[in-house]
Amino acid sequence: MSTEKKPKNVFVQGPITPEKIATSIAHHQVKTNIGGHDIFLGQVRADEIDGKTVSAIDYTAYEEMANQTFHEIREAAFEKFDLTCMHIYHSLGRVNAGEICLFVFTSSAHRKDCFEATRYLVEEIKTKVPVFGKEVFEDGSHTWKENK
Predict the structure, then answer these.
(1) To 10 degrees, the CA torsion angle through 90, 83, 20, 94?
(2) Please, what is the angle between helix 111-128 and helix 63-80, to 10°?
């Protein structure tokens, strides 16, 4: 029997809700070997581009490939940092300006590991995962978003 972990589905439809974030945090109260948590929340900005304001981003992905890449990034982070646990969620579909589209939550016995791991994870996600965002403007027009 294989001990290799299967990639998790990190995607949620629409924005990541405050309730999902709060519930995820609350579930860690029973894990008394954790001394620190770090959280990154990616939020859709109402950027102004060429005189038009972004009202939402419509996210799409090659889901199987993206989940595999998320899995590889997770495994590398567990090898690199002394983490107790880690959660990553990314939106698919429409996420309005002001709503959360990425939730990265790391936990470890000591704060330094989770701080460093979260930064590492976010940078790896932004550069390697095939998730695409179409910026939707207030007038209904759209353009593909550049990852920065």
Answers:
(1) -10
(2) 150
Residues 6 or more apart whose Cβ sits within 8 Å of residue 36: 107, 108, 109, 110, 111, 113, 114, 115
> pLDDT tens across 87-131, in order?
999 999 999 999 999 999 999 999 999 999 999 999 999 999 999
Q: What is the 3-state secondary structure (H, E, C) of 88-132?
A: EEEEEEEEECCCEEEEEEEEECCHHHHHHHHHHHHHHHHHHCCEE
Pick 31-138's CATH classification: 3.40.50.300, 3.40.630.30, 3.10.310.20, 3.90.1170.40.
3.90.1170.40
Q: Read off the pLDDT band of 6 (50, 70, 90).
A: confident
Q: For the chain, give every domain's residue range.
A: 31-138
Pair 117, 106: CB distance under 8 Å: yes
Q: Name the more confident of 55 and 7.
A: 55
CA angle, 145 then 43 then 92, to 5°: 60
The model carries a pTM of 0.92
